[in-house]
Amino acid sequence: MRILGLSIIAGLLMVTSSIANDEMDVASARGIVEQQITAFLSDDIDTAYSFAAPAIKRLYPEPQRFLEMVKRNYQPVYRPGNYAFGRALSDTDGDTIALELLITGPKGKDWRAIYVLNRQDNGKFQISGVQLTKLKSPAI
């Protein structure tokens, strides 16, 4: 009976630890997205570029080309008004996180951005993609 009790406690600790790790990873991912947005707003191109995953950097090997792409295709992310995080999901191994960001962009239009961040070999998350969708009703 005592062994069963210890096994249950150990199982609960592992689940609690896993949830805590997921929460820490989500908080870290949100921080990365916020830092990139802050860098865009400050025109700090090098810092904004530093949060891009290696696959993005292979497509846009220079920070200036990356910035041109963001300005052209992701204007609400480049110059957001108000924004707020929505849902967050992670895969079972915790190496991929998807974050919903609701944005009021230029001209007061509302958008949903889904950021995908992947854990790199160094253990840190980087942004590997953003899907942007215009909303029909106010998001924030």
What does this structure look like?
With 140 residues, the chain is of the alpha+beta class. The chain has one domain (2-134): Roll (Nuclear Transport Factor 2, Chain: A), CATH 3.10.450. Helices cover 48% and strands 26% of the residues. It contains 5 helices and 4 strands. Strands 1-2-3-4 form a 4-stranded antiparallel beta sheet. The longest helix is centred in the N-terminal third of the chain and has 40 residues, at 2-41. It is globular, with a radius of gyration of 18 Å. Mean pLDDT is 86; it is low at 1-20.
- The proportion of residues in beta strands is 25-35%
Per DSSP E runs of 2 or more residues, the count of β-strands stands at 4
Q: What's the CATH architecture?
A: Roll
Helix content: 40-55%
User: Could you state the order of secondary-structure elements as H and E?
Assistant: HHHHHEEEE
Under the CATH scheme, which class?
Answer: Alpha Beta
For the CA atoms, what is the radius of gyration?
Answer: 18 Å
Q: Could you name the ranges where pLDDT drops below 50 across 5 or more consecutive residues?
A: 1-20
Task: Indicate the multimeric state.
Answer: single chain
Give the terminus-to-terminus CA distance: 53 Å
Shape: globular
Major β-sheet strand ordering: 1-2-3-4
Mean pLDDT: 86
**How many helical elements?**
5
Annotated CATH topology: Nuclear Transport Factor 2, Chain: A
Structural class: alpha+beta
Largest sheet: 4 strands, antiparallel
* Count of distinct structural domains: 1
